[in-house]
Specification:
mainly alpha; about 0% strand; globular
Length: about 200
């Protein structure tokens, strides 16, 4: 297994198939020209963040710490993350790049991150806030469609995921009124806390 650094991830990727939902997003707003490097860098970062979220959900579900209702919500959020990945990976594929896959990155988590509901919910809040900030930052910064539209739409869903975990943790479902975006450097640094 090849391990990528954040810089390496932003510069390269590995093979990924373009699934139907991402193809549909691209069909409605395909690139006329190749997006600028800054947009492609954001797309690579978002792919890595989506892969982190997918890995997190797989591990959170595997330890079976939640009841049926919360487990159903976690499974649905994991499904959302796969669709987010497919959409953003499709942008990279359409631009002639090969997006990273789960086999390209080794994720690491704090000790005892998956020992109980509280530790999982705390980590879920942190990862989903990273996701939300990264997608909001992309929505502000990218210049081209369909990536800008995808980033905006995914950010709305990531806000729901933050609420899921704050609800599990604090028994409240609503967060801040205006979540803060993360620029590409801030998002890359935050993602680096979970990559080895």
């Amino acid at each position: 297994m090849r391990t990528l650094t954040r810089v390496g991830l932003l510069r390269s990727g590995a093979a990924a198939a373009l699934a139907a939902s991402g193809a549909g997003l691209l069909a409605r707003g395909a690139f006329a020209d190749v997006p600028p490097d800054a947009d492609l860098a954001y797309a690579r970062l978002l792919v890595a963040a989506d892969l982190l979220a997918a890995d997190f959900y797989a591990q959170a579900l595997a330890v079976k710490q939640f009841g049926p209702s919360a487990t159903k919500a976690l499974r649905h959020a994991a499904f959302n993350e796969q669709e987010h990945y497919t959409a953003v990976a499709g942008v990279l594929t359409a631009a002639g790049q090969t997006p990273a896959t789960a086999d390209d990155i080794d994720f690491s988590y704090p000790a005892n991150a998956f020992v109980d509901r509280g530790s999982i919910a705390n980590l879920g809040v942190a990862i989903e806030q990273l996701q939300l900030g990264a997608y909001l930052g992309a929505a502000d910064a990218v210049q081209t469609e369909p990536l800008r539209g995808i980033a905006s739409r995914v950010a709305a869903n990531e806000a729901q995921h933050v609420c899921l975990f704050t609800g599990l943790l604090e028994d409240r479902m609503l967060g801040v009124s205006l979540p803060l975006p993360l620029d590409i450097g801030e998002a890359s640094s935050a993602l680096g806390a979970y990559t080895s």
